[in-house]
Amino acid sequence: MTSLLSKLSLPLLQLLFLLLSFSTTGRAEDNITINVLSLMYSPDVQEVEVDSLNAGFEASLTARGWKTNSKARVSFIRPPSYDTPVAEFFESVVKESEGKLMIVFGPFGGPNTMWVKGELSKHGAVSFGPLAFSTEVREWDPHLYFISVEPNAELLALFRYAVVFLGLPRVGITYLKGTPSGEALYEFALDISSMMGHELCGAFAAAGGVGADEDALAAEWNQFVETRPQAVLLFAPVRNPATEWFIGRIVKDERARQMYVLAPSTSQGPLIRTWRDALYASNVSLNDGQLIITGTIPPSNLLTLASVRRFREEMDNHLKSNSEWGGFSKPPHFSTDEAISDLMMTGWLTGEILSQALHSTDVLTDRTAFMDSLYRQRRYVVDDLVVGDYGNECGEFASMQGAMCNCNQGGSAVYMKEVVDGFRMYPVINGFLMWGVSQCSSANVKVYAPLYGVFILIVDSYITERSARRWYEGASSVPADGSFENDRLFFHPFRRKLSEVAGDLAQLVDNRIVSAVFGGVTRDALRLPNVTFINPLAASPIVGKFRRNVLLLSPTVRQQLYVIAMHLSNASTGAVSAAIRSKRAEVIGDVLNKSLMTFDVALKSMLLLKESDTLVDHLPSSGDVVAIGLTPPDAHAIAQYLQSRNDRRVYVLFSEVAQLYDEFVEAFNATPAAVVSASRLVFATNLPHWADKNTESDTVAMFHAYNPRESTWTPLRLRGFATARLLRSIVPRMKRISPSLLVDFFYTESNIRVDDMHYGPYSDVECVKGRVTAANRCETNFGAGNISVWSMSRVLDPRVPVLSRGVTPSLEYAVMDGSSLSPSQLAGIIVGSVFFVALAIALCVLLCLFVFNSRDNNRAPREPTDPVTLIFTDIESSTAQWSTHPELMPDAVLAHHTMIRSLIMQYGCYEVKTVGDSFMIACRSTSTAVELASDIQRSFLQHCWGTTVFDDFYRNSEMQKAEDDDHYIPPSARLDPEVYRQLWNGLRVRIGIHTGLCDIRHDEVTKGYDYYGRTPNMAARTESVTNGGQVLLTYAAYMSLSTEERDQLDATSLGPVALRGVPEPIVMYQLNAVPGRAFAGLRLDRDFSFEESEDPTSTSASEHSSTHMELSGSAQTISDALHSLLSTFKPPQRERLLVPYCERWNVSLPRRKGRVWDDAYCEEVIRRIAVKVGHIAEHGARGMSASSGVTTQSGSSLIIISCNPYLSDASPKQCSRVPVSSGREVNNGMTENDAN
């Protein structure tokens, strides 16, 4: 037995020692007491608010038995009275806490926080959750452990909400002037407003102190309210007398009674009490949502959060079990007063953070060690709330790797609520602002101007409302990238009846920020000024004129009909009929007719129906039909029509199919026969298939990813998705956003590509001075391309191929070939007079010249991914030269053309177009373009013009300008004659060069290549600011040269130059093609035009008003002759014959109302030619009369060039000029026009 005991004694002793050690440790932990003293009180704060904060803090610790995870006990020490001075109470607890860990809960208020900073540092203590609405205490200090965000973050959130979600353009601010905190908040507000592109409309600077001068306040108020503020940022202490007066005045003054009041969390209780008193005093009711208040913790009634639900449960239990808090009238009092409940949750969350901070045992007896543990990249997770990261001092390299340095602020979210009936408060989810734990504060959060989009829901038009709603569902499914810098696209619904849309939208634009309008629109709404519409949905098809502010992304009616006509021409279906139901059926019918005629498709019949007519009753019994103006019943009617006629096809607009998508899918899926007939319902679209699971489209793949339910895969949702993708790609590139800036972006960029969707080219360049004659080369506000032809079968099954591959329609309505003449037309020409025969010969010669100079397309840059260098040229003061020297200009311009064309061929470049005396040239290489431009200037300098009249003209013009402008220095007029001859000679040409990517298209009418987009616009604008004899290169063109080429180039930087229509100045370089030349300042005041109108002798005014003036005798003779000659031609043939004359005589074409020349347009062109040539003929007649000293019986002379020295063996001098006279004689040998 003894031996057995001896064997067991050693293990028993070891076990005994082990148990004793555990017991000792446990008792030691239980003996650790942590003193937490509450400084969360202030004599300036109501007792119920202080109680709420302290009760919430206690509720958190009570739920844990007043112990930490390490079993240490927490002793919560509250002041004996809220009237006890903070310093006195603090000192008493410091003495009691010697040798213990001491933590401060609070303090409350800026002054108390500023005082306690020094004391905390002296005693090595930490303050948890101080509440101080002051920017001064927010500096890095490890002794202050902030749970909430800083005041600037609340200001940022409120201003953002006012602009982004309320859409208010006029926001003011109230702040406490003369204090560092107030002035800092005001400066921060100015910075925010500037960053968001919406400046503060006014400020009410409240003075501190007890007394307030009523007169001074009234003057300040009147000045503030005259700015018509729609909201005010209330960032002055509510308890300040001036602020209380300000709040009362808002309620009393009718001008401000509807103004939103946006206040920070610390103003919540005082603001509600003051507002309630002001309403009572003025006998005014509360406006729901007028008061908007931020919070640094989630609203305590936001029950979707687990943290809020747990808070309410623990708070409820604490109030039930603690009689000390009987002032809250027992639960659920805290649930019916959100202001009190929010304060409780603030205290509760601080208790939760403290409990987690006290988790580690080894730091609970040393204040320094405990404080250090708080900043070890500390993050707290309370259910679904995250507080932190907190970090101590660290180096830049650690910060670059993600460490949080010098951060004692854990809040990363601002919450928001609105005050409603009964002064209850409800969360405003849109107002929440969160930036995550990667940033210590909101200092680096950037919030730029939003794109505030209004989408219209027309409530009394079911189809239009459904379409707009589906578009919005697709657009809103595009996710943001999570950054405030880029998350700037917002859509807001606007519900109105059809008759109310235009009027109410106009009022909305006057009172709200509206960047762009989407959804359903009316024709009247589209006429509103200063409103940007993006791809609007119309209740019925619209064929409208160019509107710069209407940006279209989907194929227009014109484009759809053009592509359908192109398909019909290849389908060999014979003649087609049309049935159009619309208020503007005639306009749509005209577009359809022109499209069909362009592709030689016969139109058998066209029925223009009223909106009340039934479409299906008017479908033809034979042949294919184009049906426009569909309603929901038409889908089933068309399906039945196709099933009963197996050899028919119906062509419709896809824009109508998209809006009636459900009806068409249901109708053509109803029976097997209906499915078969779907192959004969045809339309044109540029969308990829929205329901193709095996899609190759990036856009559709993303659309499916963010809209996984197949029932949502519809064309309008995909259109909305693609539109939002486009806008989200645009917004980050715009620091400021407004309707005009948004429109400018589209026309400046011209071509925009997002994923696999391409939009453009957009162009706002007007058709000027005969520059272009094709409809699509002028102003273009539609950007859809790659439009293919589908059948309804492909809609039902994405595997069905398209009927015609995608094309981008040129919209060139070339009805007939100008060379095909009927026998009757030839007979009409033959029976003409000898004069008419001579004129016809001249026309033929010019047509031959046109053919002779046809372009070599092999020289054209054709690769869309390669940059193209474009050159634009124009003769300086050409119109004035034509008027002053009409007898010399034809030969001079001919020499001008010959020299430039010869150099174009020499350098292997491509003549894109030549209109009048203006050239557009495309080169593959920038260095080639630079050499070509230099040689053009040198060739003109070396050419023998045979006269000095052009030089005299330019010098006289300079001298005249010098007399009118004392600051103007003539660049050439005062040069020594010998020096002048070395630098200047003859006509002066302006040249502009730009390099970039282009939208390259082959023109089916001219059989050549043309270049669209931002690059040609920039090149043309560059040329427009250039002086005669000068060559300008844009920065892009200059930098596209190699370093070696730039080193060898003689060029001078002119610095940034502002061009019309270009948002940012462009750096320009002057190519010194002729060294020594000096130039006047750039022509920055000139519009983008080839026409010179500054000279008083310019005839442009008469040309543009020829319809409204009487023709002179000479002009009338010319007009009669052209009418007689061309009367047997159709308008398209007349266009072919008249355009060369416009080019030859530098006649500007009038602005078109349609896409093609009609009889009225031809009449106007003939009148312009007659006015221009008649004026020149009369000038020549006067010259001959003056030189001969005799009286002429002619009032005018028409000069007809009967031969061309560059096409025949004749010399220029041998080319005859045949005068034709008319008019009556007046005194002294003057004609009637001369006398006038």
Report on this model:
The protein is α/β, with parallel strands linked by helices and 1236 residues long. The protein folds into six domains: 32-148 and 302-403, Rossmann fold (3-Layer(aba) Sandwich), CATH 3.40.50; 151-295 and 414-444, Response regulator (Rossmann fold, 3-Layer(aba) Sandwich); 451-551; 557-807, Rossmann fold, CATH 3.40.50.2300; 823-849 and 1132-1235, no CATH class; 858-1071, Alpha-Beta Plaits, CATH 3.30.70.1230. It contains 42 helices and 41 strands. Strands 6, 7, 8, 9, 10, 13, 14 and 15 form an eight-stranded mixed beta sheet that branches. Strand 22, helix 19 and strand 23 form a beta-alpha-beta unit. Helix 8 (241-252) crosses helix 9 (268-282). The longest helix has 30 residues, at 2-31. The N and C termini lie far apart (151 Å).
CATH class of the largest domain: Alpha Beta
| Low-confidence regions | 7-13, 15-28, 768-777, 815-853, 1087-1109, 1182-1236
| Assembly state of the chains shown | single chain
Proportion of residues in extended strands: 15-25%
Main sheet overview = 8 strands, mixed
CATH architecture of the largest domain: 3-Layer(aba) Sandwich
**What is the averaged pLDDT score?**
84
The Rg value, from CA coordinates, equals: 41 Å
Helical region count? 42
What distance lies between the first and last C-alpha atoms, to the nearest angstrom?
A: 151 Å
Shape from CA axes? globular
Structural class: alpha/beta
Number of strands: 41
Helix content percent band: 40-55%
Query: Total domains, how many?
Result: 6
Q: How is the CATH topology of the largest domain named?
A: Rossmann fold
What is the CATH superfamily classification of the largest domain?
Answer: Response regulator
Cofactor: Mg(2+)
Organism: Trypanosoma brucei brucei (strain 927/4 GUTat10.1)
Subcellular location: Membrane
Function: Could act as a receptor for an unknown ligand.
